[in-house]
Amino acid sequence: MYGWRARVGLILPADNAVIEPELYSVRELEGVSFHSVRLTTTERAEMPEQGVNLSYVFRELGVDAIVYACAETSFLRGVDGNQSIAQAIIDHTGIPTVTATSAMVQALHFLGLQRVSLVAPYTEDRTRTMIEFLQHMSIDVDGVEQRDFAERGTDPREWYECNLQPPTTAYLMARRAYRESVDGVVISATNFRTFEVISALEADLGKPVVTTNQAILWAVFQLLGIRCHIPVLGRLHNIERG
């Protein structure tokens, strides 16, 4: 059967055209399958609630873990609000759940990164909110490269331009954000390609790199007890948990 090793349920924003191809591009994931439900609302306040309501389908699918795969609408709720999204899905389904934001934070703590540079494809206001969230989680930010792709594009869909970006965009933004004082780099958003450049960034900067989809995959592995080294996904996927 598909997913004989693990079945993972993804709750995706309406616009997300990146996370599924990225996850399926990883050759080492034999026996792991991903199954998505897609939100129909783009109203940020409504997205987590709709995600909770849709999560019931994963009981029928028989998934082993669920991911609320929208970083922005999870960190915008603050530390307690982010956790409440995952808990509401767990209460609704009985299935272990992680949010995109929690996955990033867990990965940063695992790697011991206390000071990071940040790549944020969000508005200035929402980027500030993310920085405040990280600070509440004992992670300081030094160096930010923020870009709201919708401001520079002509498409009326708010997040569409982000999923059109090649991975080199993330690479160049990370190089601009980077400061020598940091322990590593964070690249946020599930709708932003990064997998192809993680290894190059770590080689060029000499520091660990955490991206949202990479952290989601790692966090799911931790939930399910899967051990899988993935060379292209950097240090996070190639060191053992102590």
UniProtKB/TrEMBL annotation:
Pfam families registered for this protein in UniProt: Amdase
InterPro entries: Iso_Racemase_Enz_sf, MaiA/AMDase
Name under which the protein is recorded: Maleate isomerase
